[in-house]
Amino acid sequence: MDFNVKRLAADAGTLFSRAVQFTEEKFGQAEKTELDAHLENLLTRAETTKHWTERILKQTEVLLQPNPNVRIEEFLYEKLDKKVPTRMNNHELLGQSMIDSGNEFGPGTAYGNALIKCGETEKQIGGAERELIQSSAINFLTPFRNFLEGDFKTILKERKLLQNKRLDLDAAKTKLKKAKMADARALVSLSLNILSLFSNAVQMWAEEVMKAEQDLKMTQSEFDRQAEITRLLLEGIGSTHAHHLRCLNDFVEAQMTYYAQCYQYMVDLQKQLGNFPSAFSSNNNQSTSGAASVSVPILPLSTSLPASSANASSGFTELQNFSGSRKARVLYDYDAAGSNELSLLADEVIMVSSVPGMDSDWLMGERGNQKGKVPITYLELLN
């Protein structure tokens, strides 16, 4: 118990002397030991690294998960050491909605088929996005977070110890300076030939100076040792930069893979949709301007044509080269884009014929008294 009290008193005395030294430095009443320029530069670089690592980490998290509520939820699950519940991302939700609506309209219709194809592609993009987030979290976010929560906290701890050792050193210097000033005053008193009266005081001042010198030597040694430890840790920031550079390269590769996958998915989808964008553009132009528009044939959405497609293709060529009419079965629903076209229903049978001067991708269709242009790609000629 006595030892603990003495230690507590010693610690309190150390804290008090540090506080006094710090206060006197702030008011310019005490000298301050400055760190060497190399160590100061290392400290500045460490602070800069910490600042920008935090900024990059935060903005990357925002990029990968724009929803702040979801980010907070994931943070809480991480702190509670619980698994984050699996949820569909925005691309997957959109894709599922498209697929459901396509099934409702009917996979056999052009619009329904298009919705299903687009929905499947959106879900593929959603899966690629999930892989990007997972890869970035492991190879990019985690190393940055480990630096902030691990290495830099260690640097802060050692830097605080260095600050305390520096205060102890300067307090010891001040103490020695005051002891020497007292010793000098004692020598002046001796010169007045009153040695017998002040001999005990002179001896006490000499012992005080010796003790102050020993304290200074000890605190200087502790300060130098702590400065070396801090310097070694700070020089490790160079290795941190090299590691973060590798992580940055991994992040770029993950993004490159993600965007390449998205591009390929969209290219494949565009091939499946055929010329739908051209038809939509034609319809939009027709509704927004009074100029005459030229209808563009629409390709069917299915990637595989019926077994009789080859025969039908040769039949179309024959029909276009010679006059006459043929029966044709409609493969997909088609909404007429203008009054000169004929709307179609899947599986109905109509009569088609070729008209001189008509676009080779179109035929003239007849259903009873109704006539109008119909796209070849929506038809299958019947024998």
Plain-language structure description:
- With 383 residues, the protein is an alpha+beta fold.
- Helices cover 69% and strands 7% of the residues.
- The protein contains nine helices and five strands, in the order αααααααααβββββ.
- α1 (2-26) crosses α5, α2 (37-64) packs antiparallel against α5 and α4 (90-105) runs antiparallel to α5.
- Mean pLDDT is 79; it is low at 277-309.
Strand content: 5-15%
What is the end-to-end distance?
A: 111 Å
Poorly predicted sequence stretches spanning 5 or more consecutive residues: 277-309
Q: Name the helix and strand elements from N-terminus to C-terminus, one letter apiece.
A: HHHHHHHHHEEEEE
Topology overview:
Layout: H1 2-26, H2 37-64, H3 68-79, H4 90-105, H5 110-190, H6 195-235, H7 237-273, H8 276-288, H9 309-321, E1 325-330, E2 349-353, E3 362-367, E4 370-375, E5 379-381
Antiparallel strand pairs: 1-2, 1-5, 2-3, 3-4
Attribute tags:
383 residues, alpha+beta, five-stranded antiparallel sheet, 5 strands, rod-shaped
Summarize this entry quickly.
With 383 residues, the protein is α+β, with helices and mostly antiparallel strands. It is built from 9 helices and 5 strands; from the N terminus they run αααααααααβββββ.
